[in-house]
Design goal:
This protein is an all-beta fold. It contains no helices and 24 strands. The protein has a 20-stranded antiparallel beta sheet, with no helix packed on it.
Length: 417
């Protein structure tokens, strides 16, 4: 302490706002890539613009986006997205003032979305059905701050959503069920949300040699809605619940998230429950991670399946290896930082892991998949996005429905879970 006060030293580092974007990944035996550019401070105005070309697992696309974070007034955000797909198109227009901070008193946002694409259904690891799907959606959401204390805020929420989904034959397999081929709803919803704030900072969690922030405070959101049967709009109810929380452990911390939603029309429709729990133990250069995740569906819409494959928890299996209506996945991974910051550009680490998963329900029935493997992690010190590169080699321990076993290489940006 000095006589004139406290001396504070702040260290800063430059980061590029113009990003040349390129990626190459392989998950479940399918290679994807992208190339493009993104500017996050266009001519010094804070506006954002980007374009790119992508080859994804089911389609390729050319896309562009534009964002103005202060269109008419501070924090009034405008966003435009457009993608030309190999099997259709995607368009989104959004305008509104979000809850950009905990003490913001109100929010109001509107979004319009249109998309046309091929929906593919799989059975026993192979493409079985293709339908043409059209989606139209208009959504207006709003909220009001009800109370605030030092640790949390409580908000009252409301929304109006019009949705229209059409399915038709796509040239492979049977046509969509007639009773679900056209669904139109107009939901009026209200709810409440509690958002907590209890942040911690830890290093060597999901990124190499970087600090990361995690919120351990309990947060919950619940909404109820109804769609009146007026004209060609179908009558139904709707319920949505989501929440998260965390806790400190002796040498780390744990996080839990939960989300559930359903339509109600003579019973549950398209009911989906997902939950994820993970624990991190940090000791020196080592990070030990355990994760348990589940997704379960009841009376799903006909275009929806829940996969268990290399992109959803079991890295030694090909995409769409098993399709069902429920899955449970467990992962254990040990990560170690081996070579920190070479020339302040890259860091290197290694990992060993095991994955196990169970799937049940249509279309493939009950299956258990498991694998073990090792991996390389490369941290890119100066990158503001895609700062971790991952390469894994995994060996399957059980055959998939096509009888396939063996080794599989996967690589991508970011951790596998």
């Amino acid at each position: 302490m000095r006589a004139e006060g406290t001396r504070v030293v702040v260290e800063t580092a430059d980061a590029w706002t113009l990003l040349l974007r390129g990626s190459l990944s392989n998950k479940g035996g399918v290679t994807t890539y992208s190339i493009g550019a993104e500017e996050y401070n266009l001519l010094g105005t804070g506006r954002q613009f980007g374009f790119g070309w992508e080859k994804e697992t089911d389609r390729s696309s050319r896309s562009l986006f534009y964002v103005d974070p202060n269109l008419f007034a501070p924090h009034v955000t405008f966003r435009f997205d457009f993608s030309e797909l190999s099997d259709g198109r995607f368009f989104r227009l959004a305008l509104g003032r979000p809850f950009y901070a905990l003490d913001v008193r109100w929010a109001l946002e509107g979004t319009s979305r249109l998309s046309d694409f091929d929906t593919k259904l799989y059975a026993r690891g192979e493409e079985a059905t293709v339908w043409k799907e059209e989606q139209r959606n208009l959504l207006v959401t709003g909220g009001r701050l009800m109370s605030r204390d030092p640790d949390a805020v409580v908000r009252l929420l409301g929304s109006v959503e019009w949705s229209d989904v059409k399915l038709r034959e796509g040239g492979l397999g049977p046509p969509p069920p007639e009773e679900a081929a056209h669904r139109r709803f107009l939901f009026f919803s209200a709810g409440v949300a509690r958002e907590g704030s209890d942040w911690i900072t830890r290093r060597l969690v999901d990124r190499i040699d970087r600090d990361e922030d995690f919120n351990l405070a309990p947060s919950i959101r619940a909404e109820l809605g109804f769609s009146p049967p007026v004209g060609d709009v179908q009558g139904a109810g709707r319920a949505l619940v989501s929440g998260s929380m965390g806790t400190l452990l002796p040498s780390g911390f744990a996080l839990v998230t939960l989300q559930a939603s359903t339509r109600l029309s003579g019973g549950v429709e398209n009911a989906i429950l997902s939950a994820d729990a993970r624990a991190y133990v940090l000791t020196g250069p080592w990070t030990f991670v355990g994760r348990l995740g589940t997704m379960a569906g009841w009376n799903l819409d006909p275009e929806n399946q829940i996969p268990l494959d290399g992109e959803n928890g079991v890295r030694a299996y090909r995409l769409h290896a098993v399709e069902g209506s429920r899955r449970l996945v467990g992962n254990l991974e040990a990560r170690v930082l081996a070579v920190p910051e070479v020339l302040q550009l890259v860091s290197f680490g290694f990992a060993a892991f095991g994955d196990v998963g169970w799937s049940s329900g249509d279309s493939d029935g009950f299956w258990r998949l498991a694998d073990v493997g090792v991996g390389l992690r490369i941290g890119i010190t100066r990158a503001s996005k895609n700062s971790l590169l991952r390469m894994d080699v995994a060996r399957s321990l059980h055959p998939d429905p096509l009888g396939r076993t063996g080794w599989l290489l996967s690589f991508s940006s970011g951790q596998a879970f």
